[in-house]
Amino acid sequence: MEKTDVYQLEIKRKRTMAILMKRLLDIVLSIIGIIIALPIMLVVGLCIKWEDRGPVLFIQTRTGKEGQPFSIYKFRSMKVRNEEALKEEHIYDWESGVPDTFVFKQTDEIDPNVTKVGAFIRKTSLDELPQLFNVLLGNMSMIGPRPEIPAITTHYNEQQKQRLLVKPGITGWAQVNGRSDVTNGEKMDMDYYYIQNQSMTLDIAILWKTIQVVLTSKGAV
Length: 221
Prior knowledge:
Radius of gyration: 18 Å
Domain Bacterial sugar transferase: 22-215
Number of domains: 1
Structural class: mainly alpha
Organism: Listeria booriae
Strand content: 5-15%
GO molecular function: phosphotransferase activity, for other substituted phosphate groups
Keywords: Membrane, Transferase, Transmembrane, Transmembrane helix
Mean pLDDT: 87
Helix content: 40-55%
Protein name: Sugar transferase
Largest sheet: 2 strands, antiparallel
Number of helices: 7
Strand order of the largest sheet: 1-2
């Protein structure tokens, strides 16, 4: 076997080990997270139900790794609304990819459709806790680019599709460096950085910084 072949096999082995280690870490952290957060999730669920008697969870289709759709779980933070009306809010006609200036969330605007409980759990990121089950199921990771809705990802150009090379995460490099306060172009650049430099060390650093960012309630993950 030539040295080049040995080198390529070694690279492949290291990549496989890195993927397995990341998955193992995801399973361990998601189980620990679910156990610790279970009392909080029960209280949040009861508060949501008590406010308007609507469903506790908001389940939405997002785009996962390699463009595969999956159902993401969040605590419902908005009033119960017609599904068709929600779809009409996210109709885009971009032809050359998602514009760099695009911002999906406007954090300085008060949405009248957000409930009182919803406003609190959004500010504290408690609405994201059910995604620990997404991680345990394997369609998300603890760390990775945030999953977008298909209405946006279907417009990705070839470069933007790089975001879909890895599993989406509950938190990521972009979220701890601006969260929802950044433009699409800035977010993309940070996601590219993560994909090109991902490592266990970087993942741990992002997890630690996520805790700090959430505690300051800056923006929304």
